[in-house]
Design a protein that fits this description.
Strand content: under 5%
Structural class: mainly alpha
Number of helices: 5
Largest sheet: none
């Protein structure tokens, strides 16, 4: 097989990979793996909300208050995204996924992705609060290193963030028009039934 043919074959294989059907064993393994991630993130974010990190010595400053608010927001978002992913995965494993299983798996994977991203952002906020409180060179170096790693995470996540944002926007727009059309039909039926009663 020529190198060009192999590349074309590999491209066709990759493009058709999403269209293949999963065996029950593969599906259960994937659901199990994603469920482990979702439950671990939910546990970590729950623990982060119950035992809020930081010594609390200088939380009255404006920057520390804002960072703590961001921490709690990202922690809450991470937990809820992981719980939604876990619920979707449980529905798949029970055979109660309303739409096709592949799109439900993709949705659960996206929720897991966003829960991990939020968990990393919450961790960055707590590190920044610690640097505010301690103000030593070591902690400044640590937050600089964390900012570098966060940048790498966002760099590799950018394509997935954009693609899921466009899919969510398209879904909302499509359902908004369906919702509006349904409301118009209902209003028409209500008007005609009211006019018929007069």
């Amino acid at each position: 097989m020529e190198a060009d043919d192999k590349t074309e074959f590999d491209n066709n294989l990759i493009s058709n990979l999403t269209r293949t059907t999963l065996t029950t064993e593969e599906l259960n393994r994937r659901v199990g793996n994603l469920l482990v991630v979702a439950v671990l993130v939910a546990g970590v974010t729950f623990a982060g909300a119950i035992t809020v990190p930081g010594s609390g010595s200088d939380r009255n400053s404006g920057i520390s208050k804002n960072l703590m608010r961001l921490y709690i927001c990202f922690d809450m978002l991470g937990m809820n995204c992981s719980l939604i992913a876990a619920i979707i995965l449980c529905r798949i494993s029970l055979g109660r996924a309303s739409d096709d299983v592949t799109s439900s798996m993709e949705l659960a994977t996206c929720y897991n992705f966003y829960s991990l991203l939020c968990m990393g952002l919450a961790y960055t906020c707590i590190l920044a609060i610690t640097v505010q409180e301690r103000r030593t060179g070591f902690f400044r170096d640590i937050i600089t290193l964390q900012a570098f790693f966060l940048f790498i995470q966002l760099f590799y996540s950018f394509g997935l963030i954009l693609s899921t944002a466009f899919k969510a926007l398209a879904f909302l727009l499509a359902n908004l028009f369906k919702f509006k059309a349904g409301m118009k039909r209902r209003m028409y039926h209500v008007r005609t039934s009211l006019m018929g009663r007069e």
